[in-house]
Design goal:
260 residues, alpha/beta, Glutaredoxin, 5-stranded mixed sheet
């Protein structure tokens, strides 16, 4: 049973901020009511999805769970995974051009282009972090680049790897600073400015520059502090500490030999 208050709070916020498009997202709170079929705990698919695709999505969810355990040491979140094999289904639940949409600690929606283990892991990491912080009050103190960067690290998504980062540096592709990736609004602005869809000749490989930037930063940090550092930063944020201080403090105390 989901926390009804959390659902209503998230829904009200989304509707007030984004209007009609998020009215559709309310359907994610009760997928079966709107035609989705439950194929396992917390996994829903549209009726048209083939047997082969259903089996694959279950395999990807199982793999993603292992990835979350590797980063966080366990799994506390149980988000509904709502997988659409058609764009029509994706639009029905509030999706548009993205590969996936995340709804806090409650659920995430996958498009036909987003049904991969790395992307499921990425979205699940957002839900896991939100669940572990246990409050929007604490969650709002986490900069967007850290949330997204940690999801990149967890997912091991090839398009956001350090190899991609080296490509960005080699070709002198413009990239944002972390200071401009703190709020969700800043993140979206950066995606528009530096993202694949904003390619205007200065991004020859059509690289996901913003995600690669966040991933590179958090990957360095995680390499030094590992899962204990993730758990520590969550605990310290819940204790009222300021993010930038504990982020740097944990890094210094890790005694990491690599220059970071």
């Amino acid at each position: 049973m989901r926390n009804l208050f959390s659902m209503l709070l998230i829904t009200a916020t989304l509707v007030l901020v984004s209007g009609c498009s998020y009215m559709k997202a309310m359907k994610t709170f009760s997928p079966e009511t709107f035609g989705m079929e439950k194929i396992s705990d917390y996994v829903y698919v549209n009726p048209e999805m083939s047997k082969n695709s259903r089996e694959k999505i279950l395999e990807y969810v199982k793999e993603s769970r292992k990835n979350i355990v590797a980063i966080y040491g366990g799994v506390k979140s149980t988000p509904d995974v709502i997988a659409c094999s058609t764009e029509e289904c994706y639009r029905k639940f509030g999706g548009v051009t993205s590969k996936a949409k995340n709804y806090g600690g409650v659920s995430f929606l996958l498009s036909p282009r987003g049904m991969t283990a790395p992307l499921i892991t990425h979205e699940w990491s957002h839900n896991e972090l939100y669940t572990r912080l246990d409050s929007f009050w604490y969650y709002r103190n986490i900069p967007q680049w850290f949330d997204e960067g940690l999801a990149v690290v967890a997912s091991k998504e090839p398009t956001h790897s350090d190899e991609v980062w080296r490509y960005i540096l080699k070709h002198n592709i413009p990239k944002p600073s972390l200071d401009n990736l703190v709020s969700l609004n800043e993140w979206h602005k950066a995606i528009s400015k530096y993202g694949v869809l904003a390619n205007k000749g200065n991004n020859p490989g059509k690289i996901s520059v913003v995600y690669a930037t966040a991933g590179h930063e958090v990957r360095k940090w995680y390499k030094c502090v590992e899962k204990s550092g993730v758990l520590e930063i969550i605990n310290l944020i819940q204790s009222g500490h300021e993010f930038s201080y504990v982020y740097e403090s944990i890094k210094r105390n890790s005694k990491c030999k690599e220059s970071i």
